[in-house]
Specification:
This protein has 278 residues and is α/β, with parallel strands linked by helices. It folds into 2 domains: 189 residues, Glutaconate Coenzyme A-transferase, CATH 3.40.1080; 51 residues, no CATH class. Helices cover 23% and strands 28% of the residues. Strands 1, 2, 3, 4, 5, 11, 12, 13 and 14 form a 9-stranded mixed sheet that branches. A 3-stranded antiparallel sheet has the order 6-10-9. Helix 5 crosses helix 7. The chain is globular and about 50 Å long.
């Protein structure tokens, strides 16, 4: 039952080139950066990655992308990675763009043993009709495009409605990051890091979790567990330095309210229970 391995290097050692990966995270929030770096150091290549996005140019999955380790990417948003766009448009990378909610449900379905499902998202577009460019050649010609999908009419509360069939996603490995985890693989995510991580954990045949804080079995309340240990095969405990190494995708700052008010000369020192007018 003890699923803890000694290091990220050991945890990813058996991931072969050509494997498919379901990777948690949203933007740069909650990404398994330590496991990604271990894969980079291992030289693993020709990967098929499924994730909401592909990191940025110098962090997250963008690190693997920059070294041409990713062959195919299934994602819903890729706008923050210039190298991603360059590889895609030059024919170096195959890309399947999927509506975000559909991608989430495809991962959840894969982890739940549901082979496919119908959704209204994408009906009447190339998502359903096919023809979305998956791969270009070096001259900008589309050489691989998405196939048409089955569309069926179902009765709904609003009357007959069209739905498109989407296949579930099951990956060879799932890579996730959790705030806390125990030796049995039970995981808790903190705030916004509870994004695609639970779904990626479900969808991996072998799921590896890096955890910021390792606790002993029984210390996590069952009501607090987001991913049960049945979905997790390996746990990597991060060092304090690794746990603290997090990036902010875009930093926006402004003067504090008190500073703004002082500049306008309207700051009054409040007594207990009084509000500050700024």
């Amino acid at each position: 039952m003890d699923k803890v391995v000694s290091s990220a290097v050991e945890a990813v050692a058996d991931i072969p080139s050509g494997a498919s990966l379901a990777v948690g995270g949203f933007g740069l929030c909650g990404i398994p950066s330590v496991l990604i770096e271990a894969l980079l150091d291992a030289g693993t290549s020709d990967l098929e990655a499924v994730s909401n996005n592909c990191g940025v140019d110098d962090w997250g999955l963008g690190r693997l992308l920059a070294e041409h380790r990713i062959r195919r990417m299934t994602a819903s948003y890729v706008g923050e990675n210039k190298e991603f766009a360059r590889q895609y448009l030059s024919g170096e990378l195959e890309v399947e763009l999927t509506p975000q909610g559909t991608l989430a449900e495809r991962l959840r379905a894969g982890g739940s043993g549901i082979p496919a499902f119908f959704t209204a998202t994408g009906v009447g577009t190339q998502v359903a009709e096919g023809g979305l460019p998956w791969r270009y050649d070096s001259d900008g010609n589309v050489v691989v495009s998405s196939p048409p999908k089955e569309v069926r009419v179902f009765e709904t509360a609003e009357g007959p409605k069209q739905f498109v069939l989407e296949n579930a996603i099951v990956a060879d490995f799932g890579l996730v990051r959790a705030w806390k985890g125990d030796r049995h693989g039970n995981l808790v995510y903190r705030r916004s890091a509870r994004n695609f991580n639970p779904l990626a954990a479900m969808a991996g045949r072998v799921t590896i979790a890096e955890v910021e804080e390792l606790v002993e079995p029984g210390e996590l309340s069952p009501e607090d567990v987001h991913t049960p240990g049945v979905f997790v095969q390996r746990v990597v405990a991060l060092s304090p330095e690794q746990a603290a190494d997090k990036r902010i995708e875009k930093r926006t700052v402004r003067p504090a309210v008190f500073e703004e008010a002082e500049e306008r000369g309207r700051l009054e020192t409040p007594s207990s229970g009084q509000a500050v007018t700024a």
